[in-house]
Design goal:
By secondary structure, this protein is α+β, with helices and mostly antiparallel strands. About 60% of the residues lie in helices and about 25% in strands. It contains two helices and six strands. The chain has a six-stranded mixed sheet with strand order 1-2-5-6-3-4. The longest helix is centred in the first third of the chain and has 65 residues, at about 5-65.
């Protein structure tokens, strides 16, 4: 082989090595981007769930304060039926006496129902 042929083969090998290295680098970036995307989605879902939970807890305090009669956790059926809060259920040991079984995540609060002289669970969804 002549010197020119050896240089040409060397350059050809060098170009193929560079192309393979470039493809491997692109593939590595692609994998890293996918991992980062999945991590971001997981974090976003976690924050959304925590935010939703915090809002429901705050709403449960709001509903309970609207329904309470003088003391915390003491409610009356009269006030519950007058205000008719949305996505709220009240159940006792015998079953639901206001609203119905919830279809989503709810915050449960123990309450005393003055009208019935009974303990119940207020579910705010």
């Amino acid at each position: 082989m002549t010197k020119k042929t050896t240089e040409t083969m060397s350059k050809g090998t060098l170009e193929i090595d560079m192309i393979i290295a470039f493809i491997l680098i692109l593939f590595t970036f692609y994998i890293c981007a996918n991992i980062e995307s999945q991590t971001g989605d997981s974090l976003r879902n976690s924050i959304t769930l925590q935010s939703e939970t915090a809002l429901k807890i705050a709403r449960s305090y709001e509903v309970l304060s609207q329904l309470s009669d003088k003391r915390d956790n003491e409610i009356t059926m009269l006030r519950l039926n007058m205000l008719k809060p949305h996505d709220v259920s009240l159940r006792t040991y015998t079953g639901y006496i206001y609203g119905g079984e919830p279809h989503s995540f709810c915050v449960e609060r123990a309450v005393y129902i003055k009208d019935l002289n009974e303990v119940g669970i207020l579910e705010v969804c």
